[in-house]
Amino acid sequence: MHFTSERHLDDSVLEREFTLGEIPGFLWTPASASADAPVPLILLGHPSLGLDKMYPRLVARARHAAADGFATATIENPGCGDRPRWPAAEQARADLRRAMKAGEPIGDEIIDVLILPLVEKAVPEWQGALDALLSLPEIGGPVGYSGGVISIGVRLARVDPRIVAATFFAGSFVPRVMFEEARQVTIPLHVLLQWDDEGNDRQAALDLFDAFGSKEKSLHANMGGHTGVPQFAGDAAAQFFTRHLK
């Protein structure tokens, strides 16, 4: 991990950009974080739109978490931002946009081509970033995961025991094979669902929630589109992490 810049935000949050090999990312830590008082970490997942486009929403989530005493971090998804292009994924996105514009059903083949290679490549990268982040003296445990792409979160929650709780955003398409993986996820879960999400298969999101093997899992559904998550829903997610990471 190589830090390339750092600055203090207005609310005493330290923001550092880093690279991990070819992968860029951000780490945000509260003023309270130190080697003598390391803080828990939340990994911030996000859709494959590029960190530059997602930055305003990510930094808002990071500031909220820092106020609760958590460090947060994120990395660029494969094929996004300045990372090497991924022609197969770009073609799958184009096929998805065409089908949605035409009002056609989204077939499993398009979803599999779009999501499964992303999960296979992104999850080891997230684990490598977690290795590096947890080696920093001001970052302790435990670790949570928050956000999407939900299939990346499901795989991480299944394979990495360092992640002890997760908030998932049910706003992306899910390959059928991920439902079996969801049955093996047993950590506490807090799932946010926008009922009128124009790009989400609501029934698939409900079926995925039903599949999770966690003894503690809650589904919080609110009216509105993809980006219309109400503030109180975000506050409830923050309380969830306070219960499980502190």
What does this entry show, briefly?
This protein is α/β, with parallel strands linked by helices and 246 residues long.
Helix content: 40-55%
* Estimated structural class: alpha/beta
CATH level-two architecture: 3-Layer(aba) Sandwich
Radius of gyration: 17 Å
Regions with little confidence, pLDDT below 50 for 5+ residues: none
Strand order of the largest sheet: 1-2-3-5-4-6-7-8-9
Q: What is the CATH class?
A: Alpha Beta
Main β-sheet description: 9 strands, mixed
Order of helices and strands: EEEEHEHHEHEHEHEH
Number of strands: 9
CATH topology: Rossmann fold
Strand proportion:
15-25%
Distance between termini?
Answer: 26 Å
Oligomer: single chain
CATH superfamily: Alpha/Beta hydrolase fold, catalytic domain
Overall pLDDT, averaged?
Answer: 92
DSSP helix count?
A: 7
Principal-axes shape call: globular
Keywords:
246 residues, alpha/beta, Rossmann fold, nine-stranded mixed β-sheet
Notes on the protein architecture:
This protein has 246 residues and is an alpha/beta fold. 41% of the residues lie in helices and 24% in strands. The protein has helices at residues 51-67, 87-101, 108-134, 150-159, 177-182, 202-211, 231-245; strands at 2-8, 14-20, 23-29, 39-44, 71-75, 139-147, 163-169, 189-194, 217-222. β7 (163-169), α5 (177-182) and β8 form a beta-alpha-beta unit. α2 (87-101) packs across α3 (108-134) and α3 (108-134) packs across α4. It is globular and about 55 Å long. It starts with a strand and ends with a helix. The mean pLDDT is 92.
